[in-house]
Write a structure and sequence with these properties.
- 30% of the residues lie in helices and 18% in strands.
- The radius of gyration is 17 Å and the shape is globular.
- Helix 6 links the parallel strand 8 and strand 9.
- The chain is built from seven helices and ten strands.
Length: 249
């Protein structure tokens, strides 16, 4: 994903995903298998070589936000992170892992000396709302997730990132925005807003840009809050749209 001043490569940690978020096309695949550390790193090497990107540059960022729940493949994710930092030359500051909230694995990740930055897929402003949108909440409650985030050992240079997919008339109201601010009030955090990337089989709708910006304005009064620009919607390659089409690999 080229942008002025930086390039970002979004990579996968699993084939499919077992977490079953209700607004995500990848969830419809279920889980096929974990990727090996070599396969995770190979995605980065392939894209950098194909597009002549420098791995030693501060321009390059890696986000483990493609297919899969990285914390359910943590040994291979950590091994891949070591390969990317010690072998390829990337800084841990340039690698981010996104999780739906596997609480004990968040604690385990925090004990790793070499680890990516942590991003949490929040996507709801109440326990009940999150249970409906993200069934993993029935196992790891929002309260326990936020407690794990508060206890997470941030390095001096990092913040926690919270990602929030906005769904029209579901979790995008001003009241939702105010509740998000309250939930995150005692954390060193920033928020990334993602207007839903729609797809076949997904019952939710994308909010209007004015609603997205109104939500952002409320959150931004209390903490950094950014709106992610959609990339790849036309080929079902945007966030939450990664799903193999047809029967072939």
């Amino acid at each position: 994903m080229p942008e002025p001043g930086r390039d970002t490569i979004c990579i996968s940690s699993q084939v499919g995903c077992p977490v079953n978020c209700q607004f995500c096309l990848t969830a419809l695949m279920g889980l096929e298998r974990n990727l090996t550390a070599g396969e995770i790193v190979g995605q980065v090497l392939f894209v950098t070589q194909a597009h002549q990107l420098s791995t030693g540059s501060d321009r390059l960022n890696i986000v483990m936000m493609g297919m899969g729940e990285p914390l359910l493949n943590l040994p291979n994710v950590i091994k891949a992170t070591r390969l990317l930092t010690e072998g390829v030359g990337l800084s841990p500051r340039r690698i981010t892992l996104s999780t739906a909230g596997i609480v004990p694995k968040i604690e385990e990740l925090g004990r790793e000396p070499v680890r990516p930055k942590l991003a949490i897929s929040l996507n709801a402003s109440t326990e009940e709302q999150r249970r409906e949108l993200m069934p993993i909440t029935r196992k790891y409650s929002l309260k326990d997730l936020l407690a794990a985030c508060k206890a997470y050992p941030l390095r001096t240079w990092e913040k926690l990132t919270f990602e929030y997919v906005l769904l029209r008339s579901v979790n995008d109201t001003d009241a939702d925005a105010r509740r998000v601010v309250k939930l995150l009030a005692h954390l060193n955090a920033k928020v990334n807003l993602i207007a839903l990337n729609p797809g076949p089989g997904i019952e939710f709708e994308t909010p209007d840009p004015d609603r997205v910006h109104a939500f952002q304005a409320i959150v931004r009064r209390s903490m950094p809050c950014f709106v992610r620009k959609p990339r790849g919607r036309d080929i079902f390659a945007a966030c939450g749209q990664l799903k193999r089409q047809g029967s072939g690999l």
